[in-house]
Each structure stands twice: as C-alpha cells, then as structure tokens.
Amino acid sequence: MPEVIFNGPAGRLEGRYQPSKEKSAPIALILHPHPQFGGTMNNQIVYQLFYMFQKRGFTTLRFNFRGIGRSQGEFDHGAGELSDAASALDWVQSLHPDSKTCWVAGYSFGSWIGMQLLMRRPEIEGFMSISPQPNTYDFSFLAPCPSSGLIINGEADKVAPEKDVNGLVEKLKTQKGILITHRTVANANHFFNGQVETLMGECEDYLDRRLNGELVPEPAAKRIR
C-alpha cells in the first residue's frame, strides 16, 4: 500500500493510500484516535478498518493528524484536525474525480472529527463511529445528522460510559430520513482489548448490509390531501 505525503493546512500530512481499480469506486477515509494519547494511523483498529474497506473495492486513505509521525504541525484540540481531515478528503477526491460518494470511519477522537466532517461534506453517505465520547466532546453540531451510519461501543467502556453513548444514539434516532444502527460489544473496554475481532465482525456485517441496499431509512409517509 503506497505511503503518501500530501499538503495539509499546517504543512505536509503522512498517509497510507490504496486506490481502487474502479475509477468511480467510493472513497473511505479512516480517522485515528487522540494524538496526545498515542493515537496514530497505525492503530490496530484503524488499520483493520482500512483493510475492511479496501477489500470491498473502496479507494481507501488513512493518515496521521498534524504533529504525528511525519505529519507536520502541532495538536490543535480538534479544529485543526478537522481541517486536516477535510484536506485529506480533498486530496483523494482530486485523484478520483469520478468517485461520487464517500464513507468516513473514526475511532474515539477520530469519530468526533469524522462526525464533524460529515456535517460539512454532503457526499459522505455513510459513517462508522467507534467508541465516540459524548461525555468528553460536544456532539450537538449533529443537528440534524445528514447520513445513516453505525455507532458501536464497548459495554465496559470507562472512557466513554455506555449511558452517554446511549444518550447520543437516542438523540440521533429521533431524526427522520436517516437510520442510526447501534451495536454494543459485550464486556469490551474503550480499546476493545481482546475483542477487536468481534468489533470488526460487527463493522463488516454493517458495511456489507449497507452495500447490499439494506439498513436504509423507511420513506416518509405521504401526506394525504
């Protein structure tokens, strides 16, 4: 898989990129956990997500946020990292102008960035938000959430307690026109220690069902005049 360097808002960004053989294939952008707590694009879950999309024919990119690995710049508490993600998507779209749709998958801090990117980019048609932290980060910008997606967390997550994630899910489920799928991995912590295979099984099942045309919201009832 090619190692790439592309321009970001605060200097060069380092990534790993796998183009699809199909010119019009969808794009998948994978976002890593918190840079100040050891998060990089080589995180095991990020790595597995990258290959999950790649095996299904997506053009796939994962990259290091500013200040991590060979990416230039300094940690910017989310604002700069969101700009990095937007630049990464711009870069891969510039190489694949025939690709019309995109997915974003983020883990922990990366899920917060991914959901913000979702609000800005109408071409993002699906998302995976793994171990989001609504107890730490403000998700109120999801008003309304524009795309259907998967939210998945560990039952024993002490970093982002289950009740907080459930609150976010319930709020999003009230929105019309999208379908939020929620999965909980039994006994798993924030890092899915010993449970990554189970996590990936859930993500693969969700993606395959979406690609098969399942898990779409019911059409709104027509008003009778």
Describe the structure.
With 225 residues, this protein is α/β, with parallel strands linked by helices. Helices cover 31% and strands 22% of the residues. The chain is built from 5 helices and 8 strands. It has an 8-stranded mixed sheet, with helices on both faces. β5, α3 and β6 form a beta-alpha-beta unit. The longest helix has 17 residues, at 79-95. The mean pLDDT is 95.
Keywords, please?
225 residues, alpha/beta, Rossmann fold, eight-stranded mixed beta sheet, 5 helices, 8 strands, 22% strand, AB hydrolase-1 domain-containing protein, AB_hydrolase_fold
Outline the secondary-structure elements.
Blueprint (H helix, E strand, L loop, with lengths): L2 E6 L2 E8 L8 E5 L12 H12 L3 E5 L15 H17 L6 E6 L1 H12 L3 E7 L17 E7 L7 H12 L6 E6 L10 H16 L14
Parallel strand pairs: 3-4, 3-5, 5-6, 6-7, 7-8
Antiparallel strand pairs: 1-2, 2-4
- Reading the helices and strands in chain order gives EEEHEHEHEEHEH
In CATH, the topology is named Rossmann fold
**How many DSSP helices?**
5
Number of strands: 8
CATH class wording: Alpha Beta
CATH superfamily: Alpha/Beta hydrolase fold, catalytic domain
Strand order within the widest beta sheet: 1-2-4-3-5-6-7-8
| Low-pLDDT residue spans | none
What is the mean pLDDT? 95
The biggest sheet, with number of strands, parallel, antiparallel or mixed sense and barrel status, is: 8 strands, mixed
Radius of gyration: 17 Å
Shape: globular
Strand share of the residues?
15-25%
